[in-house]
């Protein structure tokens, strides 16, 4: 190698060293390091706090939303003392602080309307019809400090030692806004559940066979097996059934077998048509998985035939156990709870039982009466 080329490399190395020295002296490299490292650590801290808030809020909501469960109700009352564990387990250092547990449920402390700032507020507003809980978390170190320490920024800014990071999660629950394309009157629900005093336990528990009901469409009857053949919905005008093959709602969603209820609480019926093919797949899956379906319950019917309209009363949770003559061209499916349950040749029947169920949800909420179907989701 020539002496000239060696000298060139030495001069390059000297130039690089000079540039690095200038950048260090001017604080540029330290500033970039602080920007990358410290801000990156703050983002990681907030992600941990958000995960903890999400877990804690969902845990509280699951306790508060469980209808008729005394144990879960007591846990809802004690939410403030139980949520720290959820938040801490989502922190890398095992520590985070709970700023507040609040909500619109009467068992929770009401939430403040004053913004918390520092990105510590829940996103958006509470949807109409939803009951909710909020959990707010913030930084806490092993030493008990609420300041997340900086690694490099304090060398550039006098007196700066770090910052407090916060997060918020809001989970809502309430009545759904849609149900499957099958509907029954409130009187049938009352007859089957003792007016809501005797609902079957939710899955995975297997209830006693006495909870199973036979609900009919073509020749409506409802009620417990062996009960009166008269349609309980025909006993009073406010619960009158429409004539024809009633029970299926019109315009069901082709993919989910669901019908959206209008804001006025009205929905039409399909008095003479066969149910869409997608409902068969939905019902088969629900029966096989023993997953409750959301059924709209009405308490008023007006019009006749294709012009018939139902007024929504609320939504029930119904576990399908089987059916008879329900889908044209499809063989009957026996009840997995009571194999002896039958559907008369001239009837169209669905077998199952009503229960209290808490179901994951992606749609909106409604302000209707809850007849056992409660939906839950993160809303902020």
Number of helices: 6
* Helical content class: 25-40%
The end-to-end distance, rounded to whole angstroms, is 68 Å
What ranges have pLDDT less than 50 throughout 5 or more consecutive residues?
A: 2-9, 219-232, 235-241
How much strand? 25-35%
Shape, per Cα inertia axes:
elongated
Query: What's the structural domain tally?
Result: 2
Main beta-sheet strand count, sense and barrel state:
8 strands, mixed
User: Structural class per helix/strand content?
Assistant: alpha+beta
Order of SSEs:
HHHHEEEEEEEHEEEEHEEEEEEE
Radius of gyration: 30 Å
Average pLDDT taken over every residue: 79
What is the β-strand count?
A: 18
Which properties best describe this structure?
single chain, alpha+beta, 2 domains, six-stranded mixed beta sheet, 6 helices, 26% strand, elongated
In short:
The chain is 27% helix and 26% strand. The chain is of the alpha+beta class and 380 residues long.
């Amino acid at each position: 190698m020539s002496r000239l080329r060696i000298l060139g490399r030495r001069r390059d190395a000297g130039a690089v060293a000079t540039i690095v020295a200038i950048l260090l002296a001017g604080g540029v490299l330290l500033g970039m390091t602080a920007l990358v490292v410290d801000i990156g650590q703050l983002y990681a801290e907030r992600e941990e706090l958000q995960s903890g808030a999400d877990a804690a809020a969902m845990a509280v909501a699951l306790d508060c939303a469980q209808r008729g469960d005394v144990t879960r109700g007591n846990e809802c009352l004690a939410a403030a003392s139980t949520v720290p564990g959820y938040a801490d387990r989502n922190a890398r250092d095992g520590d985070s602080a709970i700023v507040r547990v609040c909500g619109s449920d009467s068992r929770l402390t009401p939430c403040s309307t004053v913004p918390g700032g520092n990105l510590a507020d829940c996103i958006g507003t509470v949807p109409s019809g939803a009951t909710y809980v909020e959990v707010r978390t913030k930084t806490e170190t092993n030493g008990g400090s609420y300041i997340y320490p900086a690694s490099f920024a304090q060398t550039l800014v006098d007196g700066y030692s770090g910052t407090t990071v916060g997060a918020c999660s809001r989970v809502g629950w309430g009545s759904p806004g849609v149900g499957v394309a099958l509907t029954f009157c409130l009187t049938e629900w009352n007859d089957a559940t003792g007016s809501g005093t005797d609902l079957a336990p939710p899955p995975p528990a297997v209830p006693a066979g006495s909870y199973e009901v036979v609900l009919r469409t073509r020749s409506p009857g409802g009620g417990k097996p062996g009960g009166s053949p008269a349609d309980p919905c025909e006993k009073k005008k406010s619960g009158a059934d429409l004539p024809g093959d009633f029970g299926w709602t019109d315009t069901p969603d082709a993919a989910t077998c669901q019908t959206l209820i209008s804001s006025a609480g009205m929905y039409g019926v399909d008095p003479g048509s066969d149910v869409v093919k997608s409902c068969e797949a939905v019902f088969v899956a629900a029966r096989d998985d023993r997953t409750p379906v959301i059924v709209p319950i009405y308490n008023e019917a007006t019009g006749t035939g294709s012009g018939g309209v139902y007024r929504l009363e609320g939504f029930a949770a119904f576990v399908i156990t089987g059916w008879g003559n329900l889908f044209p061209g499809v063989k009957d499916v026996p009840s997995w709870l009571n194999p002896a349950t039958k559907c008369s040749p001239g009837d169209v029947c669905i077998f199952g039982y009503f229960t209290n169920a808490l179901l994951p949800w992606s749609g909106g909420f409604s302000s209707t009466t809850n007849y056992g179907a409660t939906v839950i989701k993160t809303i902020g």
